[in-house]
Amino acid sequence: MAVGNRSFDAIVVGTGISGGWAAKELTEKGLKTLVLDRGRMVKHGEYPTATKKLWELPYAGRPTQADLRKQAVAARTGYAVTQATKHWFVNDIDHPYIEKKPFGWVRGYHVGGRSIMWGRQ
Length: 121
Prior knowledge:
This is GMC family oxidoreductase. The protein has 121 residues and is α+β, with helices and mostly antiparallel strands. It contains four helices and four strands.
């Protein structure tokens, strides 16, 4: 694959657990690898709700009706959209996708994928 005047043996989309590991393995095998990701870079310590107690969060951590409308797909999980976690997920109104069949595509726009959302790895 060529990008501009540079060529690559492999392209990895996303730097979550799987993408990051794939990029590591490919580069260690000597392949010229391009890694693509989108969203903001999250630095260690930038987890605004990680140390908050439930009673320190608005609405005792529960999502508002506005949160549920904005993040309808993630909200279907029953656990993803809370006052402690909603900042990691995509606003489905601003970034919609069409489901031909039910599919819970829970998306976050930040480098590191869901490893950042759940484990801050």
